[in-house]
Design goal:
There is one protein chain. By secondary structure, the chain is mostly beta strands. The protein has one domain. It is 14% helix and 49% strand. The strands form 2 sheets. Strands 1, 2, 4, 5, 7 and 9 form a 6-stranded parallel sheet that branches. Strands 3-6-8 form a 3-stranded parallel sheet, with no helix packed on it. It is elongated and about 35 Å long. The model has no long low-confidence stretch (mean pLDDT 77).
C-alpha cells in the first residue's frame, strides 16, 4: 500500500509542468564564454528594467530557451562579440542592445 502511494506521488511530480527560470547577469571583463539553457515556460534572461549587462571584448554568449513566453533583455558592450540565440517557442520577445566600442 505504501509503495503504491509513493508511486502515485512520484508520477504526479514527474508529470508536473516546468515553470520559469530567471537569469540576471552583470559581467565586466574580456573573454567571457557563457552557455545559458532554459527549459520550461516563461523563461527570462533579464527583463525590462533589469537587463543583463555584458561588458568586455571577445565575449561568446549562447542562449537556448525552450518553452512558451520566453524573454531576453540584454545589453552587450565591447568588440568582437559572438551571440547565438535559439528560442523554440510559440511566443518570444527579444530586446538586445549591442553597443560596440572599439
Amino acid at each position: 500500500m505504501r509503495t503504491g502511494i509513493l508511486t502515485i506521488l512520484a508520477y504526479f511530480v514527474m508529470c508536473s509542468v516546468s515553470y520559469a527560470s530567471d537569469v540576471y547577469i552583470t559581467q565586466s571583463g574580456a573573454s567571457l564564454t557563457a552557455n545559458i539553457n532554459q527549459d520550461g515556460q516563461t523563461n527570462r534572461f533579464g527583463v525590462t528594467g533589469t537587463v543583463v549587462t555584458l561588458t568586455g571584448d571577445n565575449q561568446t554568449l549562447d542562449i537556448d530557451q525552450v518553452g512558451n513566453t520566453n524573454t531576453i533583455a540584454a545589453s552587450v558592450v565591447g568588440a568582437t562579440q559572438t551571440l547565438t540565440i535559439n528560442q523554440a517557442t510559440l511566443i518570444r520577445l527579444v530586446t538586445l542592445t549591442p553597443l560596440l566600442h572599439l
